[in-house]
Design a protein that fits this description.
Layout (H helix, E strand, L loop, with lengths): L1 H14 L1 H12 L2 H9 L6 H9 L15 H5 L14 E3 L4 E7 L5 E4 L2 E4 H4 L3 H4 L6 E6 L7 E3 L4 E9 L8 H4 L4 H4 L2 E8 L3 E8 L6 E4 L4 E3 L4 E6 L4 E6 L4 E3 L1 H6 L6 E3 L4 E5 L3
Helix pairs in contact: 1-2
Length: 276
């Protein structure tokens, strides 16, 4: 019932003219900043138990009490990242609902009715051109997902590039109504991987608070190590891989047909190396 109510709210906000006016007013009045202050304050601790119950979150391995705020609870860290270690296996960087889109030779791809070019997400024409004909993977994190993310391979992580933007929802109804990934707050990072060539990872913030915290840059990294985390409801990761570098596992590819989202876990094998 709660899930149905949440979906109904998103349909109103993004499928109704009055709802879209409401979203714009929220963004104009800086409502996300007020919400962020509250969620980082001790006053928000009462939300934790309700949130765990509402989204049926497993707290195995985590304390249920002792959090200073809702933010403190939301950013809890699992120190034992489990991942597929085979070097030819491409792993999911996070928990989430995966969808996969081909990048055309003109560097465009379509998500839920909105057309994007790589330069919409990565405003560096030379870098964007490296992914023509490749693959775009979108990982939409749900409230009950673990909101940390890891490196998908050994390699070198370059500087993180922050783009200030709005904080629209990334629910499918919002994706169909506005070009979310072109408008939203995001951070993009080039990772030179040992087995899959250059990879760009983009973390996208969402309604209503989109904190993105990347912990390492300009250094060598190992597969499965923590790259960063979302704070306060951050929501989506987009990964760009070059042409002929990897392909999605056959059974997963079949499940993804028709634009269907498939749940995956951080460290899960989702693709395989195909060439140089």
């Amino acid at each position: 019932m709660e899930k149905d109510g949440s979906n109904a709210a998103m349909r109103f906000l993004y499928g109704n003219p009055l709802g879209r006016m409401t979203v714009n007013a929220m963004l104009f009045l800086k409502a996300p900043k007020v919400m962020a202050w509250y969620l980082r304050s001790p006053f928000s601790k009462g939300m934790i138990r309700r949130y765990i119950r509402k989204y049926d979150i497993s707290m195995k391995g985590y304390p249920r009490i002792g959090y200073r705020s809702f933010s403190d609870f939301f950013e809890r860290r699992n120190l034992k990242n489990r991942f597929d270690g085979a070097k030819e296996h491409f792993i999911s960087p996070c928990d989430g609902h995966l969808s996969v889109y081909p990048i055309e030779e003109d560097s465009s791809f379509a998500i839920k009715g909105s057309s994007y070019r790589i330069c919409d997400l990565v405003p560096d024409g030379e870098l964007a051109a490296r992914f023509e004909g490749g693959t775009a993977m979108v990982f939409r994190l749900a409230p009950n997902d673990y909101h940390h993310y890891c490196f998908i391979d050994d390699g070198f992580v370059h500087k993180h590039h922050y783009i200030e933007g709005k904080l629209h929802s990334v629910q499918p109804v919002a994706l169909a109504a506005v070009p979310v990934f072109r408008l939203n707050r995001r951070v993009y990072t080039l990772i030179e991987t040992e087995n899959f060539g250059p990879v760009v990872q983009i973390e996208v913030g969402a309604l209503a608070v989109g904190g993105i915290v990347n912990e390492r840059e300009n250094e060598s990294v190992k597969k499965g190590e923590t790259m960063g985390h979302f704070s306060l409801m951050g929501s989506t990761i987009v990964v760009l891989v070059g042409k002929n570098r990897m392909e999605i596992r056959p059974e997963l590819r079949n499940a993804l047909k028709g634009g269907v989202e498939v749940p995956v876990k951080m460290g899960e094998w989702i693709g395989v190396k195909t060439g140089e």
